[in-house]
From TrEMBL:
Organism: Sporothrix bragantina
Assigned keywords, A-Z: Mitochondrion, Ribonucleoprotein, Ribosomal protein, RNA-binding
All residue ranges annotated as the RNase III domain in the record: 151-239
Residues covered by region (Disordered): 47-144, 302-324
InterPro entries linked to this entry: dsRBD_dom (IPR014720), Ribosomal_mL44_DSRM_fung (IPR044443), Ribosomal_mL44_DSRM_metazoa (IPR044444), RNase_III_dom (IPR000999), RNase_III_sf (IPR036389)
Name this polypeptide is given: Large ribosomal subunit protein mL44
Ribonucleoprotein as UniProt keyword: yes
Gene Ontology CC: ribosome
Pfam (any one): DSRM_MRPL44
Sequence ranges of Low complexity compositional bias: 47-97
Location relative to the cell: Mitochondrion
Family per similarity comment: Belongs to the ribonuclease III family. Mitochondrion-specific ribosomal protein mL44 subfamily.
């Protein structure tokens, strides 16, 4: 050992070039000395340390691709500085004593957790041993899903299949504003879930109410599958939201950010050149153009919501506090929260389809979306009910409608009541009661139109997706009325 120290002291007195050249022989001499005094175990540990100090390859505990949150840049830079410091200290390992080299090697082996090593697949980058609690990650790691009681309770409360793992359910609760990485947020699942929910809701409405006007059909679609409706569904599930996203958050909580850039799902449709002037100048927004150009709810797409085919399916919508004047009102916060909850419901539907198939997601939509009660009568707004009823009778080759007074009371009092019926020949189409004859006739015409539009063949109506089952009968075209009269 004295000869080794003399050689190391001589190496310090040499020039930089000579010391670099003499570093490798000194390490080999130290390795032989350690193998002589401490045995083969110490020599193996020392050879590992000397190899890492001479080569420039990364340690298995480091990662070339890291999920870094924009809110935790300081912690990421600190980790990079510590990594560079450890690399420089490892490069100077030849100038340390044998005891310090042995302790460094043992510490490196002790901190190397099983399962964390160099990754050969670029889709699965290397992880740190403290990755589960690292502040550099914007959302919890999937491995923590098995430890969340809230996530297991939500899985059981929704009656999901055991084939749907908790890791996928945890991903469905991570909004794109919380984690911008598409591999860890619910953007892709929400896109699939949106398409499936809209498909099953639209086919059910068209087959159960074949005479609904398109305006009422769009309103019913939004009432069942709109953002606010799905947000109410998420809250009825007992879905709780975290105060702020982060790696330390329970995976069973919904995570979204009010300050980060948001990603809005791509809505199918075409951008109208006159979209900005439709509301400004109250231009005509016809039903035919809404069917062709607008989205599933009959709403126009402005320039911010429409993308070219070359772009991705989601676009970034800036909603930062800086652009809002440094503050955000309660209405904007509620809108962002509703959109995050709605995306979570869509993502859960997409996860059910990914792990369960067509029939599973169809049962899921009927159980959680279409099971809600909606009074379609409240969606109607008539401007000229008597004229519309006359046009309807003329189109269907009915006799012209005639209003008849059926009963009255208190004509000369303060609160008279008139009961008027609308007849087409001998058939009574509708009846209405009001305080005046004109109002009673209008109400009778409205009731007659509602009775026509809300016709339904029954509750257990057959839909086109029923033919996708094995052994199903061929599809018989359902009766779908022409719709609007005016």
């Amino acid at each position: 050992m004295k000869s080794v120290r003399v050689q190391r002291l001589a190496g310090h007195l040499l020039s930089s070039s000579s010391s670099t050249a003499a570093r490798k022989p000194a390490s080999s001499a130290l390795l032989s000395a350690c193998s002589f005094h401490a045995g083969p175990a110490c020599a193996a540990a020392l050879s590992t340390t000397s190899t890492s100090s001479c080569s420039t390859t990364r340690s298995p505990l480091t990662s070339s691709r890291r999920r870094t949150s924009p809110l935790n840049l300081s912690s990421s830079s600190t980790r990079q500085q510590s990594t560079s410091a450890s690399t420089s200290s490892a490069s100077d390992a030849g100038s340390q004593s044998p005891g310090s080299l042995m302790s460094t090697a043992v510490l490196s082996d002790a901190t190397h957790a099983p399962g964390f090593g160099p990754s050969t697949d670029p889709r699965f980058p290397e992880l740190f041993p403290d990755a589960a609690t690292s502040p550099a990650y914007p959302s919890p790691l999937p491995e923590r899903a098995r430890q969340s009681a809230k996530l297991a309770a939500l899985h059981a409360r929704l009656g999901l299949s055991p084939r749907l793992p908790l890791e996928t359910l945890a991903r469905a609760l991570v909004d794109a504003s919380a984690d911008p990485s598409p591999r860890f947020n619910n953007a892709s699942l929400a896109y699939v879930g949106t398409t499936l929910i809209h498909y099953h809701v639209s086919e059910w409405l068209l087959c159960k109410y074949p005479r609904l006007p398109m305006v009422i059909l769009y309103s019913a679609m939004k009432a069942y599958a709109g953002p606010q409706a799905l947000a109410d569904v998420a809250r009825q599930w007992g879905m709780e939201a975290a105060a702020a996203p982060g790696a330390e958050v329970d995976p069973g909580l919904l995570q979204y950010s009010l300050l980060a850039d948001r990603q809005q799902l791509h809505r199918w449709g075409y951008q109208r050149a006159e979209a900005k002037n439709l509301k400004k100048y109250k231009w005509r927004h016809g039903i035919s153009s809404r069917v062709v150009f607008d989205d599933d709810f009959g709403e126009t797409l402005d320039g911010a919501e429409t993308e070219s085919p070359e772009n991705s399916e989601a676009h970034t919508e800036s909603a930062t506090a800086a652009e809002l004047g440094g503050s955000m009102d309660a209405a904007e916060k509620t809108k962002i929260a509703d959109e995050a909850h709605a995306n979570a419901v869509r993502a859960v539907a997409g996860a059910v389809f990914a792990h369960g198939g067509r029939e599973a997601v169809k049962s899921f939509v009927r159980a959680h979306v279409l099971s809600r009660q909606l009074d379609l009568e409240t969606l109607f707004r008539f401007k000229l009910p008597t004229r519309e009823l006359s046009y309807l009778c003329a189109r269907e080759n009915f006799e012209p409608p005639v209003a008849r007074l059926e009963a009255e009371t208190g004509r000369k009092s303060r609160t008279p009541v008139f009961v008027v019926g609308i007849y087409s020949g001998a058939d009574k189409l509708g009846e209405g009661a009001a305080a005046s004859l004109d109002h009673a006739r209008a109400k009778a015409a409205m009731n007659a139109l509602k009775a026509w539009y809300l016709y339904s063949p029954g509750d257990n109506v057959r839909v086109p997706s029923d033919t996708l089952q094995e052994g199903a009968l061929p599809w018989e075209p359902a009766h779908v009325d022409i719709g609007e009269i005016l």
